[in-house]
Design goal:
Elements: H1 15-20, H2 22-25, H3 31-39, E1 42-46, H4 52-62, E2 66-70, H5 95-106, E3 111-115, H6 124-128, E4 133-136, H7 141-154, E5 158-164, E6 167-173, H8 176-179, H9 186-189, H10 202-205, H11 209-228, E7 237-242, E8 247-252, E9 284-285, H12 287-292, E10 298-301, H13 305-308, E11 317-318, H14 321-324, E12 338-341, H15 346-357, E13 363-366, H16 369-376
Parallel strand pairs: 1-2, 1-4, 2-3, 4-5, 9-13, 10-11, 10-12, 12-13
Antiparallel strand pairs: 5-6, 6-7, 7-8
Length: 384
């Protein structure tokens, strides 16, 4: 209000805050006013894993005084290769609890709310409402689209990233209420979620831990820019990062729908199960059945070479799923009964359906993949 007394921005920060955030106070574009905005900001971070770990730490260090951490998972030993907010002693602990403790240890001036719920269409808006920025560090497509749609409906900027192996994509999506006719969102980039079996997860394909740290830090920087109003956020641009060459490039992102400027986000219709997907039902065998029938079966491990190195079913042929999908006839396999497996099942199902379409008469998948084999047959193999 015009008649309100002018408040010296320094008075809004305590002496401890002035000292702690002094390097921000020196920055043009942030300074005292920008730091006050950070201290007053509320940021939600979806996922306390590889991307959420550095993002949470840098947001807390930056002075964002209220963080909400959303994750329904527990810490596994395999997480520690990249999820640097957690420690070895935390294995088996809730990721939310571990992350909240790390944030408080770093900056006791930050309030942390932990949400251990899985986000879905019923709860997402209630959990995310009231935040100034959302960071999506989730690792599954269902959550990504639920978060995107809620952010667009609530009018909250969304910082988004995806990582796999040595590559990453990062962008900032603005809802129509903020971005107007030029607002872009996840559905402009990927209108329809892919099937989970069509895109390998980090657990299946691997990911460079140090690169995940880079990307999470970029996400935190995007949030700081949005909150303080400085710089040029990654709006309408997708930043592509190749960690093997340490090169980056950008591609533009434009609204896909003619009505992208309306308040209601475009929602592409999800195909029903089996619709236009040419799916066939594949018979399954348990790990124990495969073990008992090894002499009569041709077993194919369709995981990636790095996974093969961790151990395979005895006598299995190791052929990555991508290679199987290039086969043009069944001669590469032969006519005997074939059993395929991967880590848990989706990739084996893809490969099996391809062999069926090639005309192979006896194709099956091993239920639960190598993890079930470890559970039921050979517990000496490492779980990952």
């Amino acid at each position: 209000m015009a008649n309100s007394p002018t408040v010296d921005p320094v008075d809004s920060l305590t002496p401890d805050q002035l000292t702690r955030y002094s390097r921000h106070l020196l920055l043009p574009g942030i300074g005292l006013e920008g730091q006050k905005r950070l201290v007053n900001a509320r940021v939600a971070v979806v996922g306390a894993g590889g991307l959420g770990s550095p993002a949470l730490l840098y947001l807390a260090a930056a002075g964002v005084s209220h963080l909400t951490v959303i994750d329904d998972d527990q810490i596994d030993l395999t997480n520690l290769q990249r999820q640097v907010i957690h420690r070895t002693a935390d294995v088996g602990m809730s990721k939310v609890d571990s992350a909240a403790r790390a944030v408080r240890d770093l900056n006791p001036l930050v309030t942390v709310d932990g949400v251990r719920d899985h986000l879905d269409e019923d709860n997402v808006r209630g959990i995310l409402a009231g935040h100034h920025v959302i960071l999506d560090g989730s690792d599954n497509f269902d959550t990504r689209y639920v978060v995107n749609d809620a952010a667009m409906a609530l009018g909250i900027p969304l910082v988004w990233a995806a990582v796999l192996r040595f590559d990453a994509q990062i962008s900032t999506f603005l809802p129509p209420v903020l971005g107007g006719a030029g607002a872009v969102q996840l559905r402009d980039l990927f209108p329809v979620p892919p099937r989970p079996e069509d895109v390998p997860s980090c657990a299946e394909a691997g990911v460079l831990g140090a690169m995940v740290g880079q990307v999470g830090s970029i996400m935190a920087a995007e949030a700081v820019k949005l909150i303080t109003g400085t710089g040029e956020p990654l709006v309408g641009r997708i930043l592509l990062l190749d960690a093997l060459t340490q090169r980056t490039r950008e591609i533009p992102l434009r609204p896909a729908a003619a009505d992208a400027g309306t308040a209601t986000p475009h929602r592409a219709r999800m195909p029903e199960a089996g619709e236009s997907r040419d799916l066939v039902a594949i018979p399954e065998m348990t790990a124990t059945e495969v073990h008992d029938g090894l002499d009569a079966l041709q077993v194919i491990d369709v995981r990636e070479p790095g996974e093969h190195a961790l151990g395979t079913v005895p006598g299995a042929r190791t052929i990555p799923v991508g290679e199987v999908l290039t086969w043009e006839d069944r001669a590469a396999v032969g006519d005997g009964p074939v059993v395929l497996y991967c880590k848990t099942g989706p990739r084996a199902g893809r490969a099996a359906r391809h062999l069926v379409h090639l005309g192979h008469p006896d194709v099956r998948v091993m239920t639960g993949g190598i993890l079930q084999w470890i559970e039921d047959v050979d517990p000496s193999l490492p779980r990952y």
